[in-house]
Every structure is written in C-alpha cells, then in structure tokens.
Design brief:
alpha+beta, Helix Hairpins, HSP40/DNAj peptide-binding domain, 9 helices, 29% helix, 21% strand
Length: 326
C-alpha cells in the first residue's frame, strides 16, 4: 500500500469527510475491477478501499495521523483495515463485490450512498433515486420510475373562418361541455395542429393531464383564396374597361384599395398590391393579387350590338400566328 494514504486518495491531510467521499467515488469509478480490466487495477482498488476505510473512520484517522499505518494496524480499532467478506463482516456485499467477483475488499466505513451514486452512474442508473427502487441488480431501463405518467393527448378538429386564419385572434371552442379559449396565430394554414396544454386525457396514475391537439381547418372565403402568403381575388371588368383602362375599388382582408387597371389589360393578368397579403407571426407579409377577368355581356340591346359590330370591324385580328393558318 502507498505509505501516504492521503496521497493515495488524492486529498490533503485537512480533507473533510465530504472531500474524502468525493475522491473515493471518483477512484471507485476508475479502478473497480468490473470496470477497469487493466493489469494492477484490482490491487489498486483494494488499496483505495483500505485507505478510505481508515480515513473515513474518525478514530482510525486520528491514530493514523499520530502513528502512521502501524498505529492503525496495532491499535484497538485496527486489524488490517477491518474484517473482510462473509456475513457480518465489513463488506455489505458478502465479499463478492457489488457485481460478483473482486472479493476481499474492505467496505465497513463506506457510506451506502457512495455505492448508489457510483455504481448507478456507471451504468446510467441515475444514482440514489433509482437505487432505492431496485438496488444494484439491473441496468438502465429496469429501474422503477415513481414519477406519475401524464395522461394521453386527445385529438380534436375545428374549423375557423378565412379571415380569422389570416389575421389571427382568439376563438372559443366547446369540447365535451367545456368552453376552451384558443389563440389562433396570424397566417395559420389549414391542417395545422395546435396544442392546448392540460386539456387532454386524465392520468390514471395521478399525473398531469395530457394535451388537447386541435387540427385546424380553414373554411373557404366567397371572394378570396390563398396561395402561400399571397391572397388572390378575381376582379371582373367589362370589355370597354379592359380596352380603355379604368380605376376600381378593390376590397382587401382589412380595408380596401383603389386599383388602377391599365388599358389593354388581359384576362387572367395579375395586378399586385405589395404587402397586403398575409402577415404571418414570423416573416415577411405576402402580397394581394387582383386577377383580372374580362366579362363579356351575355345579352345586348340593339343599339349596343350595333356599336360592337362597328367596333369589331375596326379591331385587328388577334389570331394571326401560324397555328391559326393550318
């Protein structure tokens, strides 16, 4: 054995009981024969245990500080570091060690929590808490977890209007007789799931309730439609307005805008209003698109028909490409 027990444990002569315990735990992790298979590790482990057995006992430590190792061996509390092995001895594992094998160690002054912390952390056990449940027999996964498990998450489905989905807000849902207020984030898309904490299934073990998981569906709007964060709206114009140009007041999700329609606009052409689409909770706002739809009249009075016939005779033929001459 190392002549200086303090040096063997890596502590100073003024080390407290907590300092000794901390140093001992670190050395057990490093040199235990079931962990360290290098030559000499078993002998080193025994020396560590005997040194800790002496220094953890106030009387033995006092004798050692006065007379050295000889004073401990021959003193009234001596005896070669205490009994080893067997029932009633200093080894709480009956000389076999906590994992079998490696017998002969002296454990009489070792705090039981040392084994719980040290061997629990060696194999991912989680220390004293899990050791209380099952001791040292198992490995990770078989310990008892006394934390009550939460209840199951409960699915639900709700439909909101297009405007609320775009602008956001708060909606009140009634589920199983209970009214629940849910915050709807701006720009939410159909199919998005929202979690309402603590409104799911009840835990049979007395733990917290699960969550309510609501799948949001957005109902269609009679005028607007959505493409990403852009909002589109069909804007009808007459043949004359399309040919001559005009100004049209167009409704937005919030408010309205005066939209200038250029002369010669085509049906299906997009006139964009920047930043007037969907403003998501995070990110840049989309745009509003007025999609021009040229509406031809289905019924004409004689005077209007005569005017259109004269106009038609003066208009160029739009079908002049090669594909129209086959």
């Amino acid at each position: 054995m190392e002549s200086d027990l303090y040096k063997l444990l890596g502590v100073s002569k003024t080390a407290s009981a907590d300092d000794l315990k901390k140093a001992h735990r670190g050395l057990v992790r490093k040199f235990h024969p079931d962990v360290n298979k290098e030559p000499g590790a078993d002998a080193r482990f025994k020396e560590i245990q005997e040194a800790y057995d002496i220094l953890a006992d106030p009387e033995k430590r006092k004798m050692y500080d006065q007379f050295g190792i000889a004073g401990v061996k021959s003193g009234p509390t001596g005896g070669g570091g205490g009994q080893r092995g067997g029932p009633g001895g200093g080894d709480p594992f009956g000389g076999a060690g906590p994992f079998g094998g490696g017998g002969g160690q002296s454990w009489q002054n070792v705090d039981p929590s040392t084994f719980e912390d040290v061997f629990g952390s060696m194999f991912g056990r989680g220390g004293p808490r899990s050791a209380r449940g099952r001791g040292f027999g198992g490995f990770e996964g078989d310990e008892e977890d006394d934390t009550p498990q939460p209840g199951r998450n409960a699915p639900a489905s709700e439909t909101i209007d297009f405007t609320t989905a775009v602008l956001g807000g708060t909606r009140s849902f009634r589920l199983e007789g209970e009214s629940i207020e849910v915050r709807i984030p701006a720009g939410i898309a159909s199919g998005t799931k929202l979690a309402v904490r603590g409104k799911g299934g009840v835990s049979a073990a007395g733990g917290p309730r699960g969550d309510l998981i609501i799948t949001i569906h957005v109902s269609p709007h009679p005028w607007f439609r959505r493409e990403g964060d852009d909002i589109l709206m069909d804007v009808p114009v007459t043949i004359a307005e399309a040919a001559l140009g005009t100004t049209v007041r167009v409704p937005l999700i919030s408010g309205s805008v005066q939209l200038k329609v250029p002369a010669g606009v085509k049906s299906g052409q997009h006139l964009r209003v920047k930043g007037k689409g969907i403003q998501p909770a995070k990110g840049t706002a989309g745009d509003f698109h007025a999609v021009i739809q040229i509406e031809a009249p289905k019924e004409l009075d004689p005077a209007a028909r005569e005017l259109l016939e004269k106009l038609a005779a003066s208009l160029p033929n739009p079908r002049t490409g090669a594909q129209w001459n086959q």
